[in-house]
Amino acid sequence: MLVVGGSSGLGLAVSRLAYGLGAEVIIASRSAADRHEELAAAVGPEIETVSLDVNEDKEVEAALQGIGDIDHMVVTTRPRLTPAPFAEADLDQARQAFETKFWGQCRLIQMAHALISPDGSVVLTTGIAGERIYTGSFAMSVINSATETLCRALAVELAPIRINAVCPGFIAPKPHEIEERARWFPSGRTASAEEVAEAYIHLMESPYVTGTTLVVDGGARLI
Ligand SMILES: NC(=O)c1ccc[n+]([C@@H]2O[C@H](COP(=O)([O-])OP(=O)(O)OC[C@H]3O[C@@H](n4cnc5c(N)ncnc54)[C@H](OP(=O)(O)O)[C@@H]3O)[C@@H](O)[C@H]2O)c1
Fold first, then answer.
1. For 46-58, how does the pLDDT look when each residue is reduced to its tens digit (9 = 90+)?
2. Which residue among 118, 130, 139, 169 is least enclosed by CB atoms within 10 Å?
3. Domain extents for the chain?
4. What is the best residue among 4, 8, 150, 214 to mutate for testing ligand 1's pocket, by most ligand atoms within 8 Å of CB?
């Protein structure tokens, strides 16, 4: 299983959980190979690591050629994006964030799908900003909504490979004001990365689920 964005945060939690369940885990990110020892200590000694930038055709192509056949691919890349009200937002940064998260996912899937097992899957990552509007998050709202639509479109075009997405809410640690606000969520708190990682495993292991976005937000979208 290939986890693109597995060197940190949610992707690292997915890698650790899958490894514990017996998966052969390959972690990819810009820094993954350079951080092999650190990641092997965090996930397990048998992991493989590969460095790639999802914005670079040649790097993705070379990495995938080196990896070969894949059963599942998880994508948890996070672009650099400073929250800002629309009127003051840096549109160049927003465009680059769209390039990395949305087009990066497209590039990976277009280049990898021929390597993915017919009974395998892809799990993308959207986010709560695609479900509920927060002032200052317009760019991430659009990127996440586009990713959700991509998931449905590719579930049709790339069948029998299953294409799903996880929509995380707020994963701790978060700034004080978000942790305070989380007291009002039905869950009463933010999530751990491990709790959200369970959803990726569920989607990979569910043979009849495709074109679905699984929201794991503790009810944050409801309030
Ligand atoms: N954390 C949250 O509360 C939250 C909430 C809702 C949605 N999400 C979504 O969940 C996903 C993961 O978030 P996270 O907080 O776990 O992120 P994170 O800890 O910042 O990890 C992001 C990963 O993406 C990799 N990456 C970034 N740019 C890349 C590029 N150009 N090419 C290849 N790899 C790249 C990073 O590694 P390198 O630096 O080595 O490249 C790292 O492994 C994101 O899509 C985010 O929008 C997160």
1. 999 999 999 999 9
2. 118
3. 2-222
4. 8
